[in-house]
Design brief:
Blueprint lengths: L20 E7 L8 E7 L1 H12 L8 H7 L13 H18 L6 E3 L2
Antiparallel strand pairs: 1-2, 1-3
């Protein structure tokens, strides 16, 4: 259906919902490096990232503001120091989730 502007949309107006975005980080504390962006995308790609994370038991945290910032980073790029505090909060969530689930891994993957 098209709205009065002639653009595809819902019957009563255009669907203005932005596509979902997802970013996956990998953190290896024993390597001493900052978390690294290992996957990112929007729309169908974001849905696939989330699906794979769920299939592999990777904790997921939704934070639209953080994902907007992280999605601007390149793949395989370490997060910059100015994002350490925000990402530390996400890592804290992941570690708490892992402890509650009884998991002990040397590496953690996460999605903000």
């Amino acid at each position: 259906m098209r709205d009065s502007s002639g653009l595809p949309g819902e019957e009563n107006g255009a669907n203005l919902t932005p596509p979902r975005k997802a970013v996956a980080l990998k953190y290896s504390p024993e390597r001493g490096a900052a978390p690294v962006v290992v996957a990112k995308g929007q729309g169908v790609i974001a849905e696939e990232i989330v699906k794979k994370a769920k299939e592999n038991g990777v904790p997921i945290q939704e934070d639209n503001s953080l994902v907007e910032v992280l999605s601007k980073l390149d793949l395989e790029q370490e997060i910059p120091p100015e994002l350490y505090k925000l990402v530390a909060e996400v890592l804290s969530f992941v570690y708490r989730t892992d402890r509650r689930a009884g998991l002990r891994g040397s590496e953690s993957d996460l999605l903000p």
